[in-house]
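Researcher: I'm preparing a figure for a lab meeting and need a structural model of a single chain. I don't have an experimental structure, so a prediction will have to do for now. The sequence is pasted below. Please return the structure as tokens so I can convert it later.
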Amino acid sequence: MSRNTLDEKFKLARDTLLQFIEQDIIKENTTEEEKESKKSKKSIEECTKSKEIVVLSGVSLEEFRELHAEARKFKVYIRLVEGEVIVYEMPSPAHSFVVGYLIEVRRYESLESLHFLSREYFSNSTQTRLIQVYLSIKIFDPRADGTVAMVAMFYLRNNQIPSRDRPNTRLVTIQNTIPNLVISFGTAPLHQEPVDIINSTGIRNYRFTGFLQPGDTACTMPGMPAFQINIPSNLLFSSFPGGVPVGAPNFFNIDLWELQQRILDRVVSVAFILCCYIITDNS
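Model: Understood. Here is the structure written out token by token.
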């Protein structure tokens, strides 16, 4: 694809996102009477399934990395999902307030793409400079026996980990694009390919834990110490006026068993609906 064509695609995506943002602002300032009078008119969202715009298909991870500089020129953020480059966000007054954390829960986005987003979220851009915590949750396809592998990758802007040999000594600072902690918490162990991908991120071996192999302890009940993620409150509220609210705990805990159960409910429901559809369609 020529440079001019690529520039045109990013420019079109940027202009479309600006329309989305403008429409959001109009919605926030529209009275109930005005809303009623405009019901018959199609909005941009009604003509588009989501506020994500596909600009390229059949793109490899290496090609995606090269596209980042081009996207920056048009002040848009991109991600890679199943070979498609998606423009999904841009800096704007409407989106100027940024929370101190981001959680991505994805089934179809690759582990590589989710990991690569740490560079985006921990950059020093106006849109992301306040983000202190990034947690990505990757859900793999259900297996024949109904089990599902899941993995949580936890990143910190100020990335510090305990020493393996002396865990009670001073924390060790590492690059913030390396996961602070990775936990496999699904009902199935990870296949070798995702294990290799995670190891390639530079994570320390002792920070990659959970249900990795068939003989490992699985996440089977709430409160299991190996399947908890504790996030310091001062990081979550780093960009809030006044800092941590009075009475808030020092840490907020994510019990991965609870997350696993919610994911399983959704996956089983979708599989059941699809199965019923196939049976009905074949009858």
